[in-house]
Amino acid sequence: MQGENINYLLAISYQGLGNYKSKDYYEKFFETTDSATSYLKSIIYVNYGTLLEKLNFNQEALKQYNIPLKGHFISEAYFHMGEVYEKLGRKDSAIFYYKEALKQYDKGSKLKDALQLII
Predict the structure, then answer these.
(1) Taking Cα atoms as reference points, which of 58, 56, 34, 59 lies closest to residue 44?
(2) Is pLDDT larger for residue 56 or for residue 116?
(3) Would the pTM of this model clear 0.70, i.e. be above it?
(4) SS3 sequence, 30-48?
(5) What is the CATH number of the domain that holds 16?
(6) pLDDT tens profile 41-81
(7) Is 16 contained in some domain?
(8) For residue 77, is it within any domain?
(9) Residues 6+ apart with CB under 8 A from 56
């Protein structure tokens, strides 16, 4: 997107390449961005959560996935929470979040829709 924060662009670029130095750029992004503004961009928290999940920072990933769920019900955030709970051996929680992801997806609540809110 035009006018996007350079630290976020670097973070997702490095993440796409599988280079986990992207974590540093996410941290810089959050340090330099007004939380009220970044809150509108649910995709940022889901992307950062997936990075943290790959790095096995599971509790921190759950925190990132929870942020967009405070204002929106985004199926991807629920799905990834299910993945983390499954990794942690919490089968009941994983099933709950997988079911919620399907429910929200069926309602049409997904990141594509969240992106339309900020364009």
Answers:
(1) 34
(2) 56
(3) yes
(4) HHHCCHHHHCCCHHHHHHH
(5) 1.25.40.10
(6) 778 889 999 999 999 999 999 999 998 887 677 888 999 99
(7) yes
(8) yes
(9) none
Tokens representing 78 are 């629920």
Token pair belonging to 35:
């939380």
CB atoms < 10 A from the CB of 16, how many? 10
Is residue 116 predicted with pLDDT exceeding 80?
no
Q: How far apart are CA 28 and CA 23, in angstroms?
A: 9
In this predicted structure, the answer to whether residue 110 has a pLDDT above a threshold of 70 is no
Which residues lie below 8 Å from residue 96, measured CB to CB, with a gap of 6+? 82
> In the prediction, which pLDDT does 69 show?
81
Range of the domain at 101: 6-118
Closest CA to 29 of 17, 12, 16, 46: 12
